[in-house]
Write a structure and sequence with these properties.
- This protein is of the alpha+beta class and about 325 residues long.
- The protein has one domain (about 5-325).
- The protein has nine helices and 14 strands.
- The protein has helices at about 5-15, 20-35, 50-65, 100-110, 135, 150-160, 195, 200-210, 315-325; strands spanning about 70-80, 80-90, 120-125, 140-145, 170, 175-185, 215, 225-235, 240-250, 250-260, 265-270, 270-280, 290-300, 300-310.
- It has an eight-stranded antiparallel beta sheet with strand order 5-6-8-9-14-13-12-11. A three-stranded mixed beta sheet has the order 1-2-10.
- A hairpin with a 2-residue loop joins β1 (about 70-80) and β2 (about 80-90).
- It is globular, with a radius of gyration of 19 Å.
- The two termini are about 30 Å apart.
- The relative contact order is 0.18.
- It comes from Paenibacillus solanacearum.
- This is DUF4367 domain-containing protein.
- Keywords: Membrane, Transmembrane, Transmembrane helix.
């Protein structure tokens, strides 16, 4: 079977994979109960305001460099069945018990041991000691080594068949040229059901071996709860831009919380209300930064979020917006 055929099957499986995980939902709520109550009586789950459908969408947001929690509500947007709440919070998402260098080094080592098309989940003992309840509830990071498509026409055809885009341009403004396309987010990824089921055994292995991080491969059938596709562009200076499409079918409420240090600005891209974020506490990139311009639009049967991001330390908002405006 060709790479193109295998990728097509992978994309079709992921398009059907938007499903909730009761186990993950319960773990997160349990951690929020502990933090919200502070050991006091009278707390009720309804006060947290974490709809079950939101938990899964927000994991992708967290692993894309932003965070999820309560925090101060900045504004709300409605996109058909999708409701997005934007919030800001303090520094509770700053890592103190595991360094970003440790995370990058461990995940890079795991990725080197994976074959194309394989995924793994990595447990970090230090995350369970962090102040933020989401880190304690989900001390896992997904590592993907996706099969990539270097033929732009083939990749564009796959996305068109899934009704996710009308086309993939060969170039973006700023002399960025198409490099490859792949299923999944450019950094990290949402934790599938199988990953959560492996958590207890990974914790036990970490205790027995004394290792701060341990990992296991995920089966080929393990699917993330959010469907994401990434097209990568590169320029002569080896700066990269990541064009992402995230598909959400049915109703969902997503709470997006960024650290106070993240810069945010509302702007317009191709006639759409868009958001610019500049996060300087990004765990997964070598630069420690990730900037993105994103907007949400209607699609057949649901909504899709288009994002254009870069981890280049030389990237500017103006360059990102100019490239976004050059999209077909």
């Amino acid at each position: 079977m060709s790479i193109e055929q295998r990728l097509k099957q992978q994309l079709e499986r992921q398009a059907q994979a938007l499903r909730p995980s009761a186990e993950l939902h319960d773990r997160i709520l349990q951690q929020y109960r502990k933090q919200a109550s502070g050991g006091k009586r009278g707390w009720r789950p309804g006060r947290i305001g974490v709809p079950q459908a939101a938990v899964f969408a927000v994991l992708l947001v967290l692993l894309s460099g932003f965070a999820y929690a309560g925090g101060k509500l900045l504004f709300v947007e409605e996109h058909g069945p999708l409701r997005v709440e934007y919030r800001t919070t303090g520094d509770s998402f700053a890592l103190k018990h595991v360094s970003t260098e440790e995370v990058q080094r461990a995940t890079a080592d795991v990725k080197r041991q994976l074959a194309d098309g394989e995924s793994a989940v990595v447990y970090f003992a230090g995350l369970e000691q962090e102040a933020n309840p989401l880190y304690r509830a989900v001390p896992l990071i997904v590592v993907n080594k996706p099969e990539t498509i270097a033929d732009r026409a083939v990749w564009a055809d796959q996305l068109k068949r899934l009704k996710l885009t009308s086309g993939i341009p060969e170039t973006l403004a700023g002399d960025f040229r198409f490099l490859e396309g792949a299923a999944g987010a450019p950094f990290g990824g949402a934790v599938p059901d199988e990953g959560m089921k492996l958590l207890d055994s990974l914790k036990q292995e970490s205790k027995q071996t004394g290792s701060k991080s341990v990992w296991k491969k995920l089966s080929a059938s393990a699917q993330p709860p959010i469907v994401t596709y990434t097209t990568t562009y590169v320029n002569a200076q080896q700066e990269k831009m990541y064009l992402t499409v995230e598909s959400v079918e049915g109703g969902a409420t997503v709470q997006v919380t960024a650290p106070d240090s993240a810069l945010h600005e509302q702007l317009s891209v191709k006639g759409n209300k868009a958001h610019y974020w500049n996060n300087d506490q990004f765990v997964f990139s070598g630069s420690g930064r990730y900037q993105t311009v994103s907007w949400t639009e209607a699609s057949d049967g649901g909504t899709r979020t288009i994002g254009l991001g870069s981890d280049s330390p030389l990237m500017t908002k103006e360059r990102l917006v100019r490239a976004a405006e050059s999209l077909n």
